[in-house]
Amino acid sequence: MSLRTARKNIVSRGVMFALAATSVTSVQAIAEEGAEEIERIAVTGSRISRTDIETASPVTVISSDFIAKSGFTSVQEILAMQPAAAGMSLGATSNNGSGGSATVNLRGMGSQRTLVLLNGRRMVASGTGADSSVDLNTIPVSMIQSIEILKDGASAIYGSDAIAGVINIITKKDFEGTEITADGSITDKGDGESGGFSILHGSEFAGGNLVLGVQYSKRGEVIQSDRDFVPAGESSFIPGGSLGGMMPDGNGDFKPRDESYDYTTSSYAQTPNELLSLFTSFNSEIADDTELSIDLMYTRRESNQQMAPQPANIDLITSKIDPTYIKGIQDVYDELNSDIADSDDHYVIGDTINYRRRMTDAGPRIYGQETDTYRASVALTGYLSNDAQWDMSATYGRNDSKDSVANSIHAGNMEKSIYANPDDWFSGKPMDNDFLASEKIMYTEENQGGNEQFILAAGYSGISESDIGYAVGVESRFESGYYTPDLITQAGDSTAAQQAPTEGNYSVQSIYGEISVPVTDSFTVEAATRYDNYSTFGGAATWKLGATYTIIDGLMFRAVAATGFRAPNVSELYGGNTGSFDYLDDPWGNELDQQIKVNYTSDADLQPEESESFTAGVVWEIADGLSTTMDYWSFDITNAISRVNVQAEMNKCKKGDAVACATININIISEGDLSNMTAMLTNIGHQKTSGIDWNVSYTAGIFRVTLDTTYLLEFVEDDISYEGTIDGNMGGYSQLKSNLSISADISEDWNLLYTANYIQGMDGVNYGDEFTTDDVVYHNISTAYHVNDAWQVTGGIKNLFDTEPEEVPNGNDMNTVPNIYDVVGRIFFVNTSYKF
């Protein structure tokens, strides 16, 4: 047996012991027992391979066993349940604007500020093109051994994007045999049917271990109106159309609009997708002191979102319309204003008149995405006689995407058709689908995009005879991205928002160093520094300083202070101007709908964000089987890349603040003309947040209990406090979130698991009216049974009591915030695995 093989076996036993301590726990809370068997292991947040797993930074580990028993089928679903998650993220219930992607948002600081790694190396940004974050759909659950969550700033270790923390997904290696897994789920309403299968095979090959895997999954849709808690939508865009706010009365005349359109009947509450992943890893000792590792992964995603038929909003030229219709509308206005004595106050139709129509005859808007994500990573690791090691790696990632929007409406052709066929458009009667097609009003929007990443890295690390740990390394990274919208969209001829192309790239060269010094047997100091040089803005230096102090056996204090940065990404630097329909409250009262168009612009001269973070806490093994951790954390981001709070600027503009009006491009004398409202990316943002994490883990007999809690002390962005609030645009910042897990091994073959997810109520404001959501607890149960040594069956119920989401009047969908609350309801799931 080689020296490396012996080390690997020792390390494997040590890590398995650590993970077995609890299904979901802080790494540092693991008992000391058996630590002497662990020789050298890698810990997320450090480049130094250590002889223990106690570091100054808090890390949470989620094991594959817990994932399987909980019925999780996606990485996003796993991470969204964590108390440290807040704000707004994308997932299965993000129907409007998600592009089918799934993201994680640690501390509510934005998904772009959470770094996602696969086996310690960066994942390529993935989605529909020029993306700022990783699409978690690209990582198949069946290949996961564990997920490590570093809840601390780590720019000094990993560089840009690790401001809020790091998600490191560890894949299965050294796997032998064949394992076949199948799963399925359905809601208690009989919809949302989902299922999939995976095959994992591992064997000795060419002197090493080869793992091959395939996973397929299909998620079913749920329609919003099929849930009792969803109120009927009320849109001013109605199927029969309205001219100047007036609708046809059925007798050839007009009347004030007295109906609205329910858009929930054709919009998804849960979006469907299909995922196919192929993956492999190969690890081999090509010499007694050198190991080769290769990871390859490919994921194909086909996803859909569905929204109500396109709301067409067109300003018609009055002089091009048959005067009879204009006179009919004016007569209605005059009748409505007949009680106003001063005729000068009567409304008179001007040069343009607004026409609105819900294009139900074209059918619902069907958004579709086809994305292909590739990743290849090759690494060599060498072990030297002085117990040091070196490593070299090359990682390539690519994401290609095609997305479409069926039943889109060509605004220019629709306007021409209205002038040519006014009787058809102003009658209030349904439009013939063939007529719309012949007039070239209907079309399918076709867009393309992609991302590319290439990384070369080399490092050297070790532990001296005096137990001083050290690591140094260099890295070179190239990133590029593009997004090309449909030509009709680029030209502004669609009834959807106009969007310009995005394309750009940058490169960065980095050097880093890290050291861990045991000052005494009980006191250890850690330090790290990193310098990154970007082709876009220049250099950025970061540092980290931490310490651990063991008071007595089983009681340790830890603290870390660090600086961080986030470089502007491709879409922020080179993003084409894009229209976004945001949920806003018009203080002038001119807009008929909450969704108001805001023009999003980028800036090629953006500078990096800067951050300071601090954590301090205690790790206490209170008694045999009972341990706890408590950590205070704070993050302070300056020079943040963000857009101004449009709602706040609108409110200030209404009060006469000329600067606020200019900031979002509202003419101060326009009486609330929001037609050119703009929000530009700038470095003027500021974000500050702090809180307390508390974890308790208890094992006694057949029971294992874990309580994981986050208490949010403050969250301030651009001088606005969000702690304890919920909003359709910002998401939710509950001050108290907690997960309880109780696992019971009834017998050697039978396990029961109960979990509860608690979200404290939050406050919000809608059109000046305050509201409060109640506390929510989601209960989940499952059971796992080993039929024999090879066959295991797991079944359970998510959201056991079918708890409905809280009403959020300014929510972004279904009168709530879907990424905070469960909008699908009770789900029954079952999965089975067979290994031979």
From TrEMBL:
CDD domains to which the protein is assigned, alphabetical: ligand_gated_channel (cd01347)
Pfam families: Plug, TonB_dep_Rec_b-barrel
Superkingdom assignment: Bacteria
Domain TonB-dependent receptor-like beta-barrel: 337-800
Primary residence: membrane
InterPro entries reported in the protein's UniProt record: Beta-barrel_TonB (IPR000531), Beta-barrel_TonB_sf (IPR036942), Plug_dom (IPR012910), Plug_dom_sf (IPR037066), TonB-dep_rcpt-like (IPR039426)
Keywords, sorted A to Z: Cell outer membrane, Membrane, Receptor, Signal, TonB box, Transmembrane, Transmembrane beta strand, Transport
Signal peptide: 1-31
Topological relation to the membrane, as annotated: Multi-pass membrane protein
Location in or out of the cell: Cell outer membrane
Domain TonB-dependent receptor plug: 53-166
Family recorded in the similarity comment: Belongs to the TonB-dependent receptor family.
Name this polypeptide is given: TonB-dependent receptor
Annotated source species: Colwellia marinimaniae
